[in-house]
Design brief:
This protein is α/β, with parallel strands linked by helices. Helices cover 33% and strands 21% of the residues. The strands form 5 sheets. A 5-stranded parallel sheet has the order 5-4-6-3-7, sandwiched between helices. A 5-stranded mixed sheet has the order 8-9-12-10-11. Strand 21 (472-475), helix 19 and strand 22 (493-494) form a beta-alpha-beta unit. The chain is elongated and about 95 Å long. The protein starts with a strand and ends with a helix. The chain binds S-adenosyl-L-homocysteine. S-adenosyl-L-homocysteine (SAH) binds next to helix 6 and strand 12.
Length: 513
């Protein structure tokens, strides 16, 4: 390799073994990255990302990938040469590099300079577009930037001109006459300058303006004003970047509230505390209602100390009448042992299956197994109730966690059943909270904490102590509420159906009324 313009380049005829992908991460909402962008991130060995990029988008890269964050003033502090060199060296070393940029890489993304460096170093590259802030702001506020009656063109304009570098200065006379919507990027701190210039060139003072801050993020906000008042609005409301500023008649012809901010849980910050493996579906459900979801598992799921009792039970299932599952974790851990023992689901043929609730039944269904019994109320008492009648003389295998309630075993035994319990997983308290989450709670920045079991309630008490009172506690069931109260914490809402859906519904009901 020899140096070319100070950058590494292979002198032999060999092609560069790696590649650089310029990928648009979208404006904020992690769902707005393209499938192609996700595909690139999944292959990445090195990811260089801008500060505006949502951390949730970074999660598509494998854990082995090296992640380099370029801070707020990246182009000023880490010099552009160093960024280019990093990408070029990595590509020549055979790595797949993703240069992840906010919005679209080709719109005010300073990509042209980087692409030129990559190209002249003989490194192959591709560009993956993203949703740019202007169109995202249009969609997430409901302000259509083109309109059959009011706007036949759109101009994307920077509020930060670089007079020093060759580009011609903005022609405000032309912009003032522009027959359509003008969208200013990077125009917050420079608003006085560009709005004055437009007014001076004859753009009407009453031209409607929308300042859209952090569009598509869970704290999106929109401010309406006019061209004459845009600078004073920014000062009065203390609006900070990033924001795009839409200038034009279209702003006056859209509803004041958008579908995005009208979603019922918009603006609510909710902490989900389930074990890491079970967070996703519940977090998605809350996010779909518009909530900002933070995650702090209060317990984690681990293998039991000893598999022998489970393995032994699996080896002689014909000795039981019922196998009773009290959690989805129990189902998964128990059934996933079968192949390790050289067996399959046919081992379950002799027994009936009971599930404590729909989540547990669903876990069985994922194995194509139908629960013979799901009680009407999703709690141990109701399950016991449903089984006691046939308990005398019957043999029950209860598949459970290392800790949990004894009520089911006790009732079945008292009713004359033969009960055996096996521990299919341990539920362990998480020792330390994430410091950012702890700080957010302490500062009152978390609205809700979801409490989805008694074990979680107890662990939360240990993790956060008195700070737990700084958020509203959403309890999944009367049992969980009881545990919370015994620890000195009053739940704000309690689910009437003891499921994740039921808990989301309880939060919704309390927010909407
Ligand atoms: N390549 C980006 C723009 C980068 S320049 C894109 O295509 O969107 C940075 C400017 O983009 C910010 O100053 C702001 O004007 C705008 N911007 C980026 N993300 C934004 C967001 N979520 N909401 C509003 N404006 C945003």
């Amino acid at each position: 390799m020899r140096q070319h313009n100070g950058l590494p380049r292979n002198s032999s005829a060999q092609p560069c073994p790696g590649k650089v992908f310029f990928v648009g991460a979208g404006p904020g909402d992690p769902g707005l990255v393209t499938l192609r962008g996700v595909h690139c991130l999944r292959q990445a060995d090195l990811v260089l990302y801008d500060y505006l990029v949502n951390a949730l988008v970074l999660r598509h890269s494998p854990p082995s990938a090296e992640m380099v964050g370029l801070g707020h003033h990246a182009t000023k502090t880490i010099d552009q040469e160093a960024i280019n060199r990093l990408m070029i060296e990595a590509a020549w070393a055979g790595k797949t590099v993703v240069r992840l940029k906010g919005g679209d890489p080709m719109v005010f993304g300073r990509s042209a300079e980087e692409i030129q460096a990559i190209e002249s170093a003989g490194v192959p590259f591709e560009i993956v577009p993203g949703v740019t802030a202007a169109t995202a702001a249009a969609a997430y506020t409901g302000i259509s930037i083109t309109h059959a009656d009011y706007s036949s063109a759109v101009a994307l304009v920077t509020g930060q001109e670089r007079h020093s570098k060759g580009a011609p200065p903005l022609d405000y006379a032309a912009l003032a006459r522009f027959p359509g919507t003008v969208v200013f990027y990077m125009g917050v701190t420079s608003a006085a300058r560009w709005s004055q210039a437009m007014l001076r060139e004859g753009k009407p003072a009453e031209t409607p303006v929308a300042i859209v801050r952090r569009c598509s993020w869970t704290d999106q906000s929109t401010y309406r004003c006019t061209l004459a008042t845009v600078a004073e609005t920014i000062a009065a409301e203390n609006i900070r970047p990033p924001a795009v500023i839409l200038v034009g008649e279209v702003v006056a012809h859209a509803g004041r509230d958008s579908w995005f901010t009208q979603r019922p849980l918009f603006g609510q910050r909710i902490l989900v505390t389930r074990p890491r493996q079970q967070v996703e579906a519940f977090a998605d459900l809350l996010a779909d209602y518009g909530a900002e979801v933070l995650v702090q598992p209060a317990i984690e799921i681990a293998d039991p100390h000893d598999w022998t009792p489970v393995d032994r039970a699996l080896g002689r299932l014909d000795e039981y009448d019922w196998v009773v599952f009290s959690s989805a974790n129990g189902v998964n851990r128990f059934l996933d042992r079968l192949p390790r023992l050289g067996r399959d689901l046919r081992a379950l043929a002799p027994v009936k299956l009971a599930a404590i609730g729909p989540g547990t039944a669903e876990a069985l269904a994922a194995y194509r197994l139908r629960a013979d019994l799901v009680p009407e109320q999703y709690r141990a008492e109701a399950l016991a109730e449903a089984l006691v009648e046939q308990a005398p003389g019957r043999r029950f295998l209860l598949v459970r966690a290392s800790r949990g309630r004894e009520v089911l075993a006790e009732r079945l035994a008292a009713a004359g059943g033969a009960v055996e319990q096996v521990v299919a997983y341990q539920s362990l308290d998480v020792a330390q909270p994430d410091p950012d989450i702890a700080a957010a709670l302490r500062d009152g920045r978390i609205d809700w904490i979801t409490v989805t079991s008694s074990a979680i309630a107890k662990s939360l008490g240990r993790l956060f102590g008195d700070d737990l009172r700084r958020a509203k506690l959403a309890s999944i069931s009367p049992i969980t509420s009881e545990t919370l109260r015994s620890l000195g914490y009053a739940p704000a809402v309690e689910a009437t159906e003891y499921t994740m859906n039921g808990l989301a519904a309880a939060i919704l009901a309390s927010v909407v009324t």
